[in-house]
Amino acid sequence: MNIINVGKMPFVFHGAWDVLFEIHPSIAKTFLLVVLPFSLIPPAILLYVGEHHAPLFWLATGDSRWSTVAMIFFVAELFTVPAMAWLIKFIASQHQMRCEFKDCFLLAAIVAIPMWVSSVGLIAPSLWIISQIAVIGFLASAGLLYHGIYSFLKMHEPFEAQSLSYEILAAGLITWLMLCAFIILPLIE
User: For the chain, first and last CA: distance in Å?
Assistant: First the structure.
């Protein structure tokens, strides 16, 4: 799979999506090659933020508290991907569509990548830049979900994929906000 096709994934229904469907990786392989490495990014960034510019977020606390929050966030991320996979499978079944859990797990992992990577924006000492990067990450995740749903469920109507994506995205947004709360609440003095 070439990098150009991967970059097109949030915008197209085929290409890298077809290759992924042919590869059909196991849950363990998806976890080890996608979920685990990418889910390490936000906790590492949180540790950096806690050490270098926590006052920017009105959260001046000790280093040990940032370490605890980073670890809690990491564990929460690891639970979120299978939960989102289950949600994708559940919502698809509510629309009389069949899909394997491992495909849903792969899709949930891929959809989470832009959000994990967008956490790098926290390094910027500007709330405006951070918020813009978070929005871009969210939009990229939404594009991946929409095009991934269409491809993985072998749909023929983009409108139906859009409907499913909205349902899943709404639940995903709530989950993402809860993860963010895991960061903020323990740090508030």
Answer: 47
Helix, strand or coil for residue 182? helix
Mean pLDDT (whole number) for 146-167 = 86
Tokens of 45: 């960034």
Q: Is 17 exposed, middle or buried (0-12, 13-18, 19+ CB in 10 A)?
A: buried
Q: What pLDDT sits at residue 106?
A: 93
| Mean local confidence (pLDDT), 2-28 | 75
pLDDT over 90 (residue 1):
no
Q: What sign does the dihedral 55-61-63-65 (CA atoms) show?
A: negative
> pLDDT at residue 31 above 90?
yes
55-84 tens-digit pLDDT: 666 555 556 677 888 888 899 889 999 999
- DSSP at 58: T
For residues 182 and 187, give the distance between their C-alpha atoms in angstroms, rounded to a whole number: 9
Question: By three-state DSSP, how is residue 36 classified?
Answer: helix
Rounded Cα gap, residues 107 and 84, in angstroms:
9
Alpha-carbon span 183 to 185, nearest angstrom: 6
* Encoded tokens for 180: 């963010």
Q: What is the DSSP string of 99-135?
A: --HHHHHHHHHHHHHHHHHHGGGGGSS-HHHHHHHHH
